[in-house]
């Protein structure tokens, strides 16, 4: 019984970082909000994210956040679902363009 409890507790501890991230729009949030919302992002990295945004303009993709010094691939992957780029959230693809139907030509 004690062994089952220990295994359960270990599993719980290992799963906690997966749920620690809170969705945050990195194009509008301040450094304190980013640091609080994202797992593995402290005040220094959050300030670097804000500084990068101010220097280069808004992030266009979630992958672009990985260009910030100190934000590595593992940190980015761990927070990918929580990093929002637009008000609707991070969209992987743009909406499909409308296709015009060809008009009938006179013969």
Report what the structure shows.
The protein is mostly helical. It has a domain at 18-84: Photosystem II 12 kDa extrinsic protein (DNA polymerase, domain 1, Orthogonal Bundle), CATH 1.10.150. It has helices at residues 2-15, 31-37, 43-56, 73-79; strands at residues 24-25, 83-84. Strands 1-2 form a two-stranded parallel sheet. Helix 2 crosses helix 3. The longest helix has 14 residues, at 2-15.
Write the layout of secondary structure elements.
Elements lengths: L1 H14 L8 E2 L5 H7 L5 H14 L16 H7 L3 E2 L23
Parallel strand pairs: 1-2
Helix pairs in contact: 2-3
Question: What is the structure about, briefly put?
Answer:
By secondary structure, the protein is mainly alpha-helical. The protein is built from four helices and two strands.
